[in-house]
Amino acid sequence: MPHALIVEDDPNSLSGLNAIVAADGFSVDTAATLAEARAALTRFIPDVVLIDLNLPDGSGLELLHNLPAQPDGVVPVIVMTGNATVESAIEGLRHGIWDYLLKPVNIPRLRSLLARIPRPYELTEEVQALRTTLRRLGRFGPMIGRSNAIQHVYDSIERLAPTESAVLICGEAGTGKEVAARTLHEMSRRRKGPFVVFDCRAFARDPASERGLDSMLFEPGKRDPRDRATRAGPVRASGGRHALLG
After folding, report:
1. What is the pLDDT confidence band of residue 72, given thresholds at 50, 70 and 90?
2. The pTM of the whole model exceeds 0.90
3. 177-186 vs 148-160: helix crossing angle, rounded to 10
């Protein structure tokens, strides 16, 4: 369930906003001052903040400096005010607020804004449900199969993908080690980075192999006289992401 923080010093307004936001599927925490709001932010990271521009202990815009960073972006902040001016609007935009609401708050507009708030928990549940359905149909990323044995492989990949563990994939030629490694990469937090494949069998046939496998894998980049191109070792080329040594 997405979470909202409402910062409002008027008890009646706070009670009304609490009821509206909760009815739209949010859990809610409230504060009447900047100090209380800062204390609330130490307990959780909200998905949206509704804050009065004028509070007993300062401007609501001051709270923006206390909002924690999120991996997927900035927490949306909706500023509420009964005396909006061009200057306050410009100041709010400079601080990166998401939107303004004039008091008395227009309830349909507020609900429209709340409907646009990203809900990561729901997205995660949808992704998980889709993966479960695809697994029943025999698909797991680029992998195909419905047998009990391959389901165990899917379980292992799903468990390891979110971690930073080094993974050794063993199997005979043609069993799909590279497909499994690529699936692991695509499900990991490094999926936006490169996936580099290095064929160790070619290393034995490479005239340059006498300089050592470690040199070939980790070198910062050397000019290859055969094609006049600078080649970096695959581990370095992966940029700390994923490299498959086959």
Report:
1. low
2. no
3. 40
